[in-house]
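Bump. Still looking for Inhibitor of hydrogen peroxide resistance structure tokens.
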Amino acid sequence: MNVNAKPLSELSRLIKCLEVAGTPFKTEPQQFITTGNNDDEPLTFVIQSGLTVVHRKSDELLVGIARAPYIHGLSAWINDSYLEYSLMAQTPCTGFYLPASTACEIIQEAQLWQEAFCWLSWLNHLLGKRDIQLVGNNSYSQIRAMLINMAEWDDTLRSKIGVMNHIQRSTRISRSVVAEVLAALRQGNYINMSRGKLISINRLPTDY
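Sorry for the wait, here they are.
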């Protein structure tokens, strides 16, 4: 099993069952994905189409980019950690939401705990991978890790995301330092960029 691979078949089974109890939504780019009310009831959001960015609310740190299909707050019925993060549409997004307690009941009735476990384990793996790449590392190592991650994206996604802005928002390294490192890497022909977007990586030195 490839731990880096998104568990699409498990996601599909979860979404199919949860959708029957969901309330549809449509969100335009640069808008937060929310119900639009102040209901304190824990909710589970399912993104069925589009691209979203995940921010940590406490400091607006960009945690990652989520491409549909994506489920946010699946475990909200048991803890409120989902409240620490917000979802903002990067492109037009559609999906549905439902009370987290209802999602739990549906999962129980349909015996989808294995699918739910696979999804939550994958999310935990991504967060752990991010910590290994960024926490405790110097600025260049963090920038290098971010570039390697971006190089793994498909061309369509890379064409939508500016390199400097994405790295700065994800690491909080100053824009001047990010700009200096990117300029040096471009000058050394280590990376190829066009209009602020990453085209490809040729080779990245371990140290700067």
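The first helix runs from residue 8 to 18.

Edit: fixed formatting.
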